[in-house]
Please model this.
Amino acid sequence: MKIKEIITVLEEMAPLAYTEDFDNVGLLVGNENENATGILVCHDALESVIDEAIAKKCNLIVCFHPIIFSGMKKITGKNYVERAVLKAIKNDIAIYAVHTALDNHKEGVNKIFCDALGLENTKILVPKSNFIQKLVTYTIPENAEQVRNALFEAGAGKIGNYEDCSFNSQGIGTYMGNENSNPEIGERFEFVETQEIKIEVIFEKHLQGKVLQALFKNHVYEEVAYEIYDLQNQHQNIGLGMVGELTNPLSEVDFLQMVKTKMQCGVIRHTALLGKSIKKVAVLGGSGSFAIKNAIQAGADVFLTSDLKYHNFYEAENKLVIADIGHFESERYTKNYIVDYLKEKITNFAIVLSEENTNPVKYI
Model:
């Protein structure tokens, strides 16, 4: 397989359109047209991981965190980022990062986090905004079903757990073609009044090109009338963090001990315990202080995340318990998920889980 074929599979798992603006995901190092010899999946593509890839004859590394995060003006090997990139280039090893593209996916980082804790009835904690667009178009009744089905096939018409969603209304369309026109109904220079169906569907904005291509290909009119609107609606199935419920409530101490065991935490820093049972749990893998208010609004009994500063703990306001379980720990099982996904999609190719522990934080 060529690396670009594997990238297609990776983008099905973690669409680049889901990426946060500040992030740097996708192919960071290497040539997508090279043949892949093997895939090594890791958390961080450090120099030691590059060595592991060399030893295991893998020329594609799929990492969670992007080794190149901000701009690089020089590559001289003076720090851990530059050393890793230099070694990867020297040994013809490509590096692909998924990071927030997988963070925002409903089956991604935070669903993995929830599954590790046995949470049920999960939903997105911080739904993604400004991600939905609406298409409005008009056609004759005989063409309406064909157009709708084509739009659905292109990815439009999905709302939460429902597919093939549209709104259709009837009305009168009018037009008159000039000397260069070739009208479907009527003749040139003839004023036409005809029954039309107004079709309205929503879609994720990165699908706009595909949706419009389907519209133009399946519409019978020579000139297709359509409108596209940006919607303020939040996307129910894309976003950061997740909230779910325990099957059986636990005391705060028992819950935190369970988290420590299942997520293999060296230590958990937390706010004062409130003497309440834990039933509803909010999680956000990685740095999640920005979502404390979301966890409170969701009615969570506890919020699990990482990288909290001293004053972030005050924000609990005795409304819930906030626990910092460690950055690496909160994303611990992500690389396992990536390996399992790739093995399911690519059945005849070497896919290796890295044995390197790249967590830079140690505990006494």
Notes: The mean pLDDT is 96. DSSP finds eleven helices and 15 strands in the chain. The first strand starts at residue 26 and ends at 29.
